[in-house]
Amino acid sequence: MSHAAIPLTDDFLHALSCLDVRDLCANAAVSISWNALACHDMLWLELCRRLWSTKAGCFHLTPARLMKLQSKGHSWKEQYKKHLEDGSRNCLTMQELTTLVWDFTFRLHPQARASTSFRFDMSGHVCGHPNGLTYSWRLSDDGRRVELGQFPQARVIRRADWGWAIANSNIVCCSLEDEDLTGEGSEGASVLHPELFGLDQLGPSLQLVHMLMRLQRPPVG
Questions:
Q1: Residue 117 dihedral angles phi and psi, to the nearest 5°
Q2: Which of 29, 34, 126, 138 is least buried, going by the fewest C-beta atoms within 10 A?
Q3: So what's the pLDDT on residue 220?
């Protein structure tokens, strides 16, 4: 059985790039010609660019990152699949934990960025605490929890933008991007990631404390 070749044009590739990835994969099963089009590298480059633009800044396809990924020799379809799989990973590695810088926010004061230089040092102690505290930390073997000295154990959370958060009943720490470290990013974690600060994330006692604090605030207007 012969399959007529489908003319490959920039406009046609652009039209295909507008498809949902599931629809694109379904079209790939239509024929050999459609499969070849659906696997075209430039098409998947655009799909990668679009997906990664919705994620944390370190995933954006800057010229430098484009060159770095191209040097790996993988197709853009493989890169898309690889990043999608990694984006669903919810266990933190020791290297990630110790190399990232964290935005430290107290739950009782979610609008205030308490520290933007909090780190889990390789020495096994934290540094950059807003109150100058230092205490030991330990990442669990499965990478899903972090022990924080005498404080409540924190759980590891993979954010929707593929960044990381470490949170317990007292604090929320969010991994920072380069623009945050240079002072260009002014919005705190509670603005960028409000889902981490909902009352459903707290225990019953802290939920009550938050409710009482709201009652104490003077009415606006």
A1: -135, 25
A2: 29
A3: 43
